[in-house]
Amino acid sequence: MTHKIAILGASGYTGAELVRLIASHPNMEIKALTASRKAGQSMAQVFPFLRHLDLPELVTIEEVDFSEIDLCFCALPHATSQAVIRELPKDLKIVDLSADFRLRDPAEYTKWYGGVHDALELQAEAVYGLTEFYRDDIRGARLVAGTGCNAATGQYALRPLIADRVIALDDIIINLITGVSGAGRSLKENLLHAELSEGAHGYAVGGTHRHLGEFDQEFSAIAGEPVRVQFTPHLIPANRGILGTVYVKGSPEAVYKSLAQAYENEPFMIMLPFGETPSTRHVRGSNFCHVGVTGDRIEGRAIVMVALDNLTKGSSGQALQNANLMLGEDETAGLMMAPVFP
Amino acid sequence: MTHKIAILGASGYTGAELVRLIASHPNMEIKALTASRKAGQSMAQVFPFLRHLDLPELVTIEEVDFSEIDLCFCALPHATSQAVIRELPKDLKIVDLSADFRLRDPAEYTKWYGGVHDALELQAEAVYGLTEFYRDDIRGARLVAGTGCNAATGQYALRPLIADRVIALDDIIINLITGVSGAGRSLKENLLHAELSEGAHGYAVGGTHRHLGEFDQEFSAIAGEPVRVQFTPHLIPANRGILGTVYVKGSPEAVYKSLAQAYENEPFMIMLPFGETPSTRHVRGSNFCHVGVTGDRIEGRAIVMVALDNLTKGSSGQALQNANLMLGEDETAGLMMAPVFP
Amino acid sequence: MTHKIAILGASGYTGAELVRLIASHPNMEIKALTASRKAGQSMAQVFPFLRHLDLPELVTIEEVDFSEIDLCFCALPHATSQAVIRELPKDLKIVDLSADFRLRDPAEYTKWYGGVHDALELQAEAVYGLTEFYRDDIRGARLVAGTGCNAATGQYALRPLIADRVIALDDIIINLITGVSGAGRSLKENLLHAELSEGAHGYAVGGTHRHLGEFDQEFSAIAGEPVRVQFTPHLIPANRGILGTVYVKGSPEAVYKSLAQAYENEPFMIMLPFGETPSTRHVRGSNFCHVGVTGDRIEGRAIVMVALDNLTKGSSGQALQNANLMLGEDETAGLMMAPVFP
Amino acid sequence: MTHKIAILGASGYTGAELVRLIASHPNMEIKALTASRKAGQSMAQVFPFLRHLDLPELVTIEEVDFSEIDLCFCALPHATSQAVIRELPKDLKIVDLSADFRLRDPAEYTKWYGGVHDALELQAEAVYGLTEFYRDDIRGARLVAGTGCNAATGQYALRPLIADRVIALDDIIINLITGVSGAGRSLKENLLHAELSEGAHGYAVGGTHRHLGEFDQEFSAIAGEPVRVQFTPHLIPANRGILGTVYVKGSPEAVYKSLAQAYENEPFMIMLPFGETPSTRHVRGSNFCHVGVTGDRIEGRAIVMVALDNLTKGSSGQALQNANLMLGEDETAGLMMAPVFP
């Protein structure tokens, strides 16, 4: 059976990545693609790399006949997303890639994203989309909230460790290096090739990055007490990829064991041998996530490193993984392609 | 039916690219991987991006039991390749990615590659592997000689034009920009990131690049008279991709028509609308080839631009396309993945 | 004696490059910096790499007291530039970096840039700023029109050859590879790091690039007859650098001799030994220009390759070289810094 | 007065960077350049970006007449350096860029670099070359040991904080992102453009990087008690630049004040306003070092970020700064060039 798919916000990178992935999916067909400002254009115009595909033209959301859609991906900006989803049919399966339904507490939403959440009834229904940890809920969900790409990276390093109580909870640092596609197709000076290439800088330093809302929510829920981590992202000249370097206090062996057990049967989570560390280049374009653990020369300290592709495992691949579950497909359908190297 | 595959020379980029592609092939199984200096290592050690796959360990060629192999890819250096293939079973299907069996005239081989060709009986048997133009021969071949990646690019621009006599034969310039993976995994100062990034240079300027041997052979055969082109490759900081900018004298409309007809039913050859030009970024990691034609302000001159991924359409993807034909598989099996962008 | 300098349009790359160069000039002092939208900001805010310098705040052009300025660099967009310069004091020395005063024929200006030229009396006065060929005129000029960066590159390859009549005039191809800073600080999708990195594409293919106006004017004037060249620029992931690969018909030895003679005593023009070719990486950040000549395997054809830094020798360095002449300074003052490699 | 300079090991990046800098120095002249394997070649062959300079040919160390040299830079590998320097005239001023004379305790040298130190009498004489903190000693020194580039970065962030006791000493994390030129011109697969570009990875994770020896020595000396930090370097696709992100426990305001006071009168140390963070792109090719401090949302924690160019401020620029002091020149001579951006 072929599932009919709509992608709202197909002119951005996560929308295009969804098209790329679904094009190789055995049981999905793209029936509608929307883009507000680029409606009327073909995907070949907006993304010439998809030129070989036979795709529907970009239309406005209003033009979509949702009665023929089985599942809808929303790759819209936050705030826009909730306004759009509120108007969609109430029985339509939806995977949202925005931040709008990630935070269960409306006050937290306002704190990190500004504005008042306007679709609280949907929020109540939404399941947090970190597949490996919410798999059963996602299977039965109608609305799944894709996680932030940085938020996913940090959680892959830390959730099992907090759950297993093998690290101190008051002294966790998530240092992160990210490629530029996570910033989207937005036109900003510091995203120009001339300004981004050949260097590195930190941003949202000092506990101000929005994905901290997800860390706070999830880690506190696991711990059963408030957990606050430090989080510093850095931007480098790479299109795809996030490398999380997470500093924790605990026995490196216990840390390794906790993660290895958690990911033992996960199709996309790859534990490296103890002492080896990952590279974003080795997961590029794929849905795989590499996890490495090393000890430090200072006893009782460990470093967990996680590498994933922010557009795939960090957002659109994760979204498809969730959609597979929601539609009763094999979770890995369309997602087993190897990384592209070099 | 699952075909059993061996890859000789699996520690180089074209070998690894073959593994990447075959991993998604519905009817192929990798039974043997060889690497002389790295024998005994796992592919995960040599190419950690393949870590998620269950692959045979790297062995020496001598250790391979070829009786259980249906088809063998040779991704070895030229000269080595002929020496190895000469010793392989005479009924084994082989796709060679080296230069050893591309040139039908042994004198030409010596001219461009030095040394004497030592397997002339195999040369007589070999079919030139530019799939779109040798498809029928490849289907029945035992030994197929993969083309040079630059040679493929230039031929996609020019073969139909020469065959259709729509351009002057004595004034053809193939200007080419190539990414660095075409140089292989060789350790040279000018391939270091610090020396290659942030700039461009020409190499083998002035009619000295070895792929000229293929241009001479093929273009002259099509024309029925000696054809000599100018060819200048340039190296830029990109891992994958070749952009050919080919200057010809002829009617731009006739040039466009000739190419459009030639590629009308080709699954991987994509003609852009007249006046549009391709980008290597739009074919990265895929087996697609984009072809564009523009006229010049000077009447009677046209510019043909061709973009392909040197590791995929330019070598390993082409090799798999040919292997599909040789094994009676669908020509596109395992090769329809979309490019990776951004 | 210290010359007092104003830079109009200091928030763009050529403006910032002027500041970088003048900061090391022994006899220049920056008295005024303007930027329309960013007036009121400090240069440290707009270009943090200049943070160590003690610079005047950005102001509007109206706020500048030109009576205290000895020489003014205009790094404004074309059309804006002529409107601004028309209002400046008539005895103020000006080096304009825009396209507004490069083309002597107003019809040509309209053809390539659109709109009507509105300052024809200034055009009549302006000297074309390719220093090596207009040195004497520049020395006495009040208004110098900086050349296009691509136009400079092509002319360095071809002017002596046309003057010396060593090449055919009806069959010249300027193939050019350029870094991205030439496109300026403009916010366009295709200049984003995610879209520009890792690939190459041609643009303004087919004789439509504006710098052709300069080629037509200059080459025809030298030849004493209309000369029309082919010109195809390509954009690659590098911040700085232009590599011109120029295909000509003529004796390679005569071509080499003509260029070697022309540049024999030029402080910034470096001839490579015959048969060697340049790299943009070897002139990065400097005012030097490397020129190489090779023959082709086809007799009577030569390839001239020219590498320069578009922001330095191609615009702001050239501008300073001209300003030095206009102010009676040593032509090389502030410009002898070595390239930055790697 | 012009000082006569020799550079031993001129075929590596730090050697070439010394030549670049000295070429603009008002009072230095390069009299000898050595390179063991490349002796007999010209610098133009080894580093074509220096082609415009009139430089002595590369020779072996044995061929140098040290009697005519005022100061010698040693840019040789560690272990080689001590063997060479031992044989040089005992009154020759030397700035060593290797690791050989950085560690005062021979046991520490053996621990981090292996092998036994063979020139302990020279070690006793050597002054540690972090100019801002050893200025007076350097002025009178005969042998100065240039610091590690990572070691310099971490110390710029931490020395004043440890001296002023404004941070906890047992919980310091130096997270570092570095460009690739720090690895030198060595031929390794992971330094190839194809393997390094488009991603990030950590290396020497877990307290195994050799520059920890310098951190241990210097921080413990300042504190008067053993201090052990965590240090994780990451490699990214940039040629130049180190970005240190240093996590400390202490009042952010006190941290800022301590650093601002320490660097108040330093010509190359630039404090950013509180809350702003630096980028390596803004110091590229220069001797400047940008320092930023932010608080975290968790009280009592601060993040210090330091950006410098590893080849300039991190090694060859530092070396020249020290040489200036040793020769009685202005400390900033030849070093005030602005960074190159973009």
Automatic annotation (TrEMBL), chains A, B, C, D:
It catalyses: N-acetyl-L-glutamate 5-semialdehyde + phosphate + NADP(+) = N-acetyl-L-glutamyl 5-phosphate + NADPH + H(+). Transmembrane segments: none annotated. Keywords: Amino-acid biosynthesis, Arginine biosynthesis, Cytoplasm, NADP, Oxidoreductase. It holds the Pfam family Semialdhyde_dh. The keyword Transit peptide does not apply. One of its GO terms (molecular function) is NAD binding. Its main location: cytoplasm. It is an enzyme of class 1 (oxidoreductase). GO terms for cellular component: cytoplasm. It is found in: Cytoplasm. Coiled coil: none annotated. SMART domains: Semialdhyde_dh (SM00859). Signal peptide: none annotated. One of its GO terms (biological process) is L-arginine biosynthetic process. Residues 4-141 form the Semialdehyde dehydrogenase NAD-binding domain. Belongs to the NAGSA dehydrogenase family. Type 1 subfamily. PANTHER family: N-ACETYL-GAMMA-GLUTAMYL-PHOSPHATE REDUCTASE, CHLOROPLASTIC-RELATED, N-ACETYL-GAMMA-GLUTAMYL-PHOSPHATE REDUCTASE, CHLOROPLASTIC-RELATED-RELATED. This is N-acetyl-gamma-glutamyl-phosphate reductase. It comes from Falsihalocynthiibacter arcticus. The gene is argC.
